[in-house]
Amino acid sequence: MTKENHVYFEVKGFLTDKILKLKAVVRENSWTETDLNEYQEAAIAYRRLTKQEKKNATRWLGGEIGLDEIDLYNTEHLEDLVTYSKNPKLFGFR
User: Fold this and answer.
1) This prediction's pTM
2) Same domain, 13 and 56
């Protein structure tokens, strides 16, 4: 299989699936500030974290449940990442 075929058949399909999932989440929900659901609030809070906070929180959650199991489309995972980054002492760190 050539590199072009690999990109066309493997990578393109993978990225297309991820983009379609994200678009479905965005389309399903209104992204207005007044009418946010739990996922949107968690996604906005996660987006506002610094790069280092995201990195530390991801390491912690990856150690708890496994790096392959982290799902940024999962509200609970986003909330756990934000909670850890805001107060790691609750989890026995720092």
Assistant:
1) 0.55
2) no
Note whether 66 and 25 are same-domain residues.
no
User: Average pLDDT over the chain, rounded to whole?
Assistant: 79
Residues 44 and 72 in one domain: yes
Q: Is 41 in the same domain as 77?
A: yes
Residue 43 pLDDT greater than 60, yes or no: yes
Task: Output the CA–CA distances (angstroms, integers) from residue 55 to 2, 3, 16, 47, 61, in the order listed.
Answer: 35, 32, 26, 12, 10
pLDDT at 71: 82
| 39, 83: one domain | yes
pLDDT at res. 93: 56
Q: Give which of 73, 38, 70 is closest to 84, Cα–Cα.
A: 70
